[in-house]
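Table 4 source record.
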Amino acid sequence: MMLWIMATVLLLCGASALYAQSSITPADSAEILSTVANWERAWTVRDAELAAQDYADDADWTNALGCVGSVAIASKLCSTRSLSCPS
């Protein structure tokens, strides 16, 4: 009996994971990859504006240095992470 219960739970977990994966559209996937590429490129070239460009204007960046908005995020990255800043 216990084996059947465990098999059912595993089957349901697997089906749930498959459903979650199938709900991501190709457009969503492309946007996610673009955002990650922008973030990686920003740190490679040390560009604060590029690092913050994919944040919404009202984004709430919550960490030890938290701030709100893409402009504030770029400014915080400039001042605390030695990234290049617009003049």
